[in-house]
Amino acid sequence: MINSIDIINSLKFSSNSYWFNKANLFSLLIEFYKLDVKSINLDLLESKLLELEKKVDIYFTYEDISMITDNER
Questions:
Q1: 34, 9 Cβ separation under 8 angstroms
Q2: Distance CA 10, CA 73 (A)
Q3: Which residue segment(s) compose the domain that 29 sits in?
Q4: C-alpha span between 23 and 70 (Å, rounded)
């Protein structure tokens, strides 16, 4: 679990990030537990997670959701 926490700490999420709610943080901890921190590009991971966070915001505010794929919905 320490490795999972280290990965999360290395990502530059804002303190009110979508990823810090209880359910999402738990999911990250579990998924990151499976990873070797040396084998991943943390900048790319952070970018993709922030992109997904933006899409979640768009989806739940019912803005133009054309940029969100069916799988992401």
A1: no
A2: 28
A3: 2-61
A4: 22
Question: What's the pTM?
Answer: 0.76
**Mean pLDDT rounded to a whole number for the chain:** 86
Would you say residue 73 lies in a domain? Answer: no
- Quote the number of domains for the chain: 1
Is residue 71 included in any domain, yes or no?
A: no
Q: Are 28 and 13 in contact (CB under 8 A)?
A: no
Task: Please check whether residue 38 lies inside any domain of the structure.
Answer: yes
Residues 6 or more apart whose CB falls under 8 angstroms from that of 60 comprise none
Please report whether residue 35 resides in a domain: yes
Residue pair 10/44 in contact by the 8 Å Cβ criterion: no
